[in-house]
Amino acid sequence: MKKKRSRSRPIGSFEHRLQKFADDDRIAARKMPAGREREMLMRKARQTEAVMEVSDLLILHE
């Protein structure tokens, strides 16, 4: 028997969810001592913000 796919929609807009991911990563990084894991979280937050910028550019050029 096939498993049915969940058809629920994510809460909030794509941009809002991306901003929340970036904010959560940045908050978690600030709580950590300096080191590799902290830098990885900060990099992930910056990458998420870059994705937001690209998304904005794509929306403007539709």
Question: What does it look like?
Answer:
The protein has helices spanning 14-31, 36-60. With 62 residues, the protein is mostly helical. The longest helix is centred in the last third of the chain and has 25 residues, at 36-60. The radius of gyration is 16 Å and the shape is flat. The protein starts with 13 loop residues before the first helix and ends with a helix. The mean pLDDT is 90.
What pattern of helices and strands is seen along the backbone?
A: HH
What is the residue-averaged pLDDT?
Answer: 90
Oligomer status = single chain
Distance between the termini: 41 Å
Rg value: 16 Å
Provide a count of the helices.
2
**Beta strand count:** 0
Low-confidence stretches: none
Give the fraction of residues assigned to helices: 55-70%
Approximately how much beta-strand content do the residues carry?
Answer: under 5%
Q: What does the main sheet amount to?
A: none
Overall 3D geometry? Answer: flat
**Given the helix and strand composition, which structural class is it?**
mainly alpha
Could you give a short description of this structure?
The protein is built from two helices and no strands. The protein has helices at residues 14-31, 36-60.
Task: Give the key terms.
about 60 residues, mainly alpha, 2 helices, about 70% helix
